[in-house]
Design a protein that fits this description.
Strand content: 15-25%
Order of helices and strands: HHHEEHEEE
Length: 91
């Protein structure tokens, strides 16, 4: 998933949000399996939580670095150490 799509989705652009949902649709279906069948309520709940997290997600002002085919943003912790924060979502 392109970094720019995530940025657009976090700002509420409907097409980008749909693209994020399409990107994670297979993982959502797998996570929603109960007793061998896809539970529609669970699937809808996961989608709602993903969209809610998109709108809460904030990027630091620092530029990101591409490492191991994933994009990372450098962020300073309260102790002053820098940590890498991945820009992809885990369900």
């Amino acid at each position: 998933m392109p970094y720019e799509t995530i940025v657009r989705a976090t700002s509420g652009e409907p097409e980008a949000v749909d693209e994020v949902l399409r990107h994670y649709s297979q993982r959502i279906r797998i996570a929603a399996i109960e007793n061998g069948h896809i539970d529609r309520d669970t699937k809808d709940s996961i989608k709602q939580r993903l969209v809610a997290v998109l709108f809460k997600f904030r990027f630091d002002e620092q530029p990101y670095q591409k490492l191991n085919n994933r994009r990372y943003i450098g962020r300073h912790t309260k102790t002053g150490n820098q940590e890498k924060v991945s820009c992809f979502f885990v369900l």
